[in-house]
Amino acid sequence: MNYKIINGTLLTHTEKGFEIEKKDLYVAEGKIVDPARCEGWKEGGYETVDARDRLVMPGLINMHTHAYMTMMRNYADDVDFDEWLFKRVMPVEDQLPQEAAYWTSLLGCMEMIQTGTTSFADMHMFCGQSPKAAKEAGMRAFIGRGLVGDDLYGDGAGRFKEALEEKAAYESEQIRFILSPHAIYSCSARLLEQVADEARKSDMLKQIHVSESVAEVENAISKYGKTPVKLLKEIGFLDEKTIFAHCVQMREDDMDILAENHVHVVTNPASNAKLGNGFAPIVEMQKKGINVCLGTDGTASNNTLNMFREMGLLSLIHKGIHKDSTAAPAQFVIGAATVHGAKALGMEGKLGVIKEGAYADLVFLDLKAASLYPNNNILSSLCYSANGSEVESVMIHGKFVMKDRELLTIDKERVYSEVNKIVEKYL
Fold this sequence. Notes:
Elements: E1 3-6, E2 9-14, E3 17-22, E4 25-28, E5 31-33, E6 47-50, E7 54-58, E8 60-65, H1 81-95, H2 98-114, E9 117-124, H3 129-137, E10 140-147, H4 157-170, E11 175-181, H5 189-202, E12 205-210, H6 214-224, H7 228-234, E13 242-246, H8 252-260, E14 264-267, H9 269-274, H10 282-287, E15 292-294, H11 307-322, H12 330-336, H13 339-344, E16 362-366, H14 378-384, E17 391-396, E18 399-403, E19 406-407, H15 412-426
Parallel strand pairs: 1-6, 2-7, 8-9, 9-10, 10-11, 11-12, 12-13, 13-14, 14-15
Antiparallel strand pairs: 1-4, 2-3, 4-5, 7-16, 16-17, 17-18, 18-19
Helix pairs in contact: 2-3, 2-15, 11-12, 12-14
């Protein structure tokens, strides 16, 4: 279906940053197109969407998730990081069957759609379940099976084989795959070096958790004599196709290394705060030219996949830390949730923007929602006022996956029923 979107208020992006425009928008074959291409459209060849009193904005990009974790929402709270990971989360993961992860991932997709996320980068534990859920939900996803072990071709071979199998089975224009070693404390230096070699040979992105906690950094120094960032540099892991999640406990020279090697960073403020790990120094990173993106992490630690909540936290936290009301302004925060993520994913000009040739991943917000009214400054409202409830409709790849708050690709009652069964059995 082709669409002509009329009467809308658009959030567009130029070299100067995000701007508000009033103009019509045309969608054909999954992309935003030049109106000149649409002159020959005949009546009935397109659907007109009246976006009066609506903000039409690029879909948000959640750059770090574990969608299957939605069953553990509000399950492992108010405990320290080691207990959270090793005594609460991992024991559940170890007993969870494959099919359960499909339903919990689908619940994650449902929450993301309802709160305006159209693309997400996911690290998961269950072969094929996350991409299957993303495909059925109609979402755009960048997915990786978590890798651990000492040798990618030895004890890590099973997981690596699964990662390649799901890539072969599910890769498409909307679903792509990322090599995803878990962390330096669950992967040997040798395995990480092997992953870097495989990524270069296959021209794939790679993502990893880095410097999330004080203990992780201290243990790395004790074991390797260097920080996680310096270790990853030494083994040749760093390049412009590398995505680091967290980067909370960073030293000045660590940040210099990231900038020099064009590594992309994903900050997850709610998760990092809730687990007591601190806050990534994103203001300092920004000054060094590091591309800073935004993610939620999984619901076991966040406890939501709501990017609007994360956007507000990102700005407020760093204004408070730096005692500077100009830190992390709305322009930067919106960028972290859209164009910065697109850059990290190698999708500049295709995601996170409304422009000719970009994918038609669009979110429609109600500008008459009480939380956004009056519309004094729409850019500010996205950062400081919006909470996700304002999202009315969501289009991904030119198709509505939610319209007038009705999910069109997910049977939410079936999802609730299946997730309830899983929770009763495994939590």
